[in-house]
Specification:
Long chronological lifespan protein 2, signal, two-stranded antiparallel ribbon
Length: about 100
């Protein structure tokens, strides 16, 4: 008894090979075309002012020295302690 071999026609094999090669290539080029057209990196973003002195870590305010940074809440009082400061709730400075 003779086995019948099932081989796809040559056009089907070529079509399959074409799909396997062309599909990733098209996706690759389409990916880069999209990024060139509307990439957020290439669009002009509003410029943020540059601080040349000191940026306060909590408020992000630009001041000339760290001691000039505001307290986190307006009701706090800035109290000096040596050559630094701390923010105290209320109006009087007490070192605990």
């Amino acid at each position: 008894m003779r086995r019948a071999s099932r081989t796809p026609p040559s056009w089907a094999a070529w079509l399959l090979a074409l799909c396997v090669v062309v599909t990733p290539a098209l996706a690759f080029f389409q990916f880069f075309q999209q990024h060139e057209k509307g990439s957020p990196r290439t669009e002009s973003a509003p410029e943020t002012p540059v601080c040349h002195d000191y940026v306060c870590p909590v408020s992000g305010t630009c001041v000339s020295q760290a001691i000039d940074c505001p307290c986190p809440t307006p009701s706090d009082t800035k109290c000096l302690y040596g050559d630094w400061y701390y923010c105290q709730a209320g109006t009087s400075c007490r070192f605990a």
